[in-house]
Amino acid sequence: MPRTHRRAARGVAVAAAVALVGIACSSSNPASSQSGSGSTVISPSTAAAFADPLATCLATWPLRDRIALLVWPGAYTDNWDEVVTTVRDLHVGGVLLMKVGDAFVDELGLHLAALEELSAHGLLIATDEEGGDVQRLRALDPMPSQEQMSQESAEDRAAILDRHAQVIAAAGIDVVLGPIVDVRPVVGDDPLGAGRLFIGDPQQVAALGAEYVAEWQRAGMLPVLKHFPGHGGASADTHAELATTPPLDAIRSFDLVPFAQLATSGAAVMVGHLNVPGLTDGQPASMSAAAIALLRELGYGDALVVSDALGMDAIGIPVADAAVLSVQAGVDVVIFTGISDTLAVIDAIELALNDGLLTTAEIDDSALRVARLLEADERPCVAV
Predict the structure, then answer these.
(1) Could you give the residue numbers annotated as active site?
(2) 353 by DSSP, 3-state: which?
(3) CB half-sphere exposure, 128, CA atoms < 13 A
(4) 3-class DSSP state for residue 300?
(5) 229: cis peptide before it, omega within 30°?
(6) What is the rounded CA–CA span in Å between residue 346 and residue 343?
(7) Contact 94, 175 (CB under 8 A)
(8) Backbone angles phi, psi at 97, to 5 degrees
(9) Considering only CA atoms, which of 310, 269, 274 is closest in space to residue 180?
(10) Rounded Cα distance, 80 and 17, in Å
(11) Sign of the C-alpha dihedral, residues 48, 52, 53, 55?
(12) Of 88, 119, 54, the residue nearest 383 (C-alpha)
């Protein structure tokens, strides 16, 4: 379903949506950031690369607002006032919808529509919808886990996916963090557990992943494949510690296969906190320029690249510091579950740029990828 149709399907007038959160809708331009940073200077090389109207418009924004497009904090409905304030004042490009309280379920679409209206440039709403235990919108439409879905007939699987995609798209979801296309190890336990992985070899995982991708896209949402370069054979769960995968030479013919086969699907990719011997030199892939370069070489040349959540124990450093390292490595969007970290993350990226650890061109490349999604979401850039 195109975004125009699913937003209409919410049946929400803007005035009613704004009244729901009890505040007036912002009518400010993205360039009217309250951050105090008014810089709109871009490098000659970046200006030369701006070949379309959206990019030209984006170049007029304050640098800090372009940085904010890369920053997507977690949003919990039991702390919605802080979510509202963050979106309105910090101009983030998206939020990661986490736990949805019972009081929010029936009017979730209203709340999300109101939240989007608070942003001068629009807002992307992302969430985890793998099915099974990792499903933020289970109350709207329960879906089996990926393991269970592997065992359904193709017809039943398509019907389940189609129904679920329509439900969550109508609620206002733009970006689905899934499917998982990590491949189960041939020997040993699944490090993720909870039935999160498809059953099958790399080719079967790629085929199943393609079905999810197609359904999310058909409903107007962006799917995000995870967890590159492959968590299935990793030594641990990255929620608890940095995990090590088999060496690069070994994963080329196994873990990387689904990612390679889905490179032209139009999906985005989440990079995991995974150390890959022969590739990342002890660093998590989410902070490794070599890992991001490999992903781009597989065929994701202009795809959106997203970090795994930066507050996980695999990282072991403050979220703001981790965000800088991820952006330096080539990640486009950094996500984290603590919305209170948002200002510190934006500040840290801006400081790294001022200190020469990042370039304006790098920020602009990533900001443009996010802005293109916002433009597709009917919130075109407004030139100043």
Answers:
(1) 239, 308
(2) helix
(3) 24
(4) coil
(5) yes
(6) 5
(7) yes
(8) -70, 120
(9) 269
(10) 14
(11) negative
(12) 54
All structural domains of the chain: 3-376 (3.20.20.300)
Helix, strand, coil distribution of the chain in percent, nearest 5: 45, 10, 45
DSSP 106-170: TTHHHHHHHHHHHSTT--EEEE-EEETTEETTTTT-----HHHHHTS-HHHHHHHHHHHHHHHHH
Q: Are 322 and 315 in contact (CB under 8 A)?
A: yes
Q: Is the dihedral of CA 240, 194, 225, 246 positive or negative?
A: positive
Among candidate residues 268, 269, 307, 305, the one with its CA nearest the CA of residue 287: 307
DSSP-H helix ranges across 25-79? 44-49, 53-58, 63-68
Bridge partners of 305, per DSSP, are: 269
What is the per-residue pLDDT across 135-169, written as a single tens digit (0 to 9) for each? 899 889 999 999 999 999 999 999 999 999 999 99
Residue 347 amino acid letter: D
Residue the block writes with tokens 């800088």: 324
Residues 188-223 pLDDT 10s: 667 777 789 999 999 999 999 999 999 999 999 999
* pLDDT for residue 193: 74
Q: Are 123 and 115 in contact (CB under 8 A)?
A: yes
> How does DSSP assign 3-28, residue by residue?
HHHHHHHTT--HHHHHHHHTSPPP--
* Backbone region of residue 283 per phi and psi (left: phi > 0; alpha: psi in -120 to 50; beta: other values): beta
Please report where in the chains the tokens 């991820």 appear, as a residue: 326
pTM for the structure as a whole: 0.86
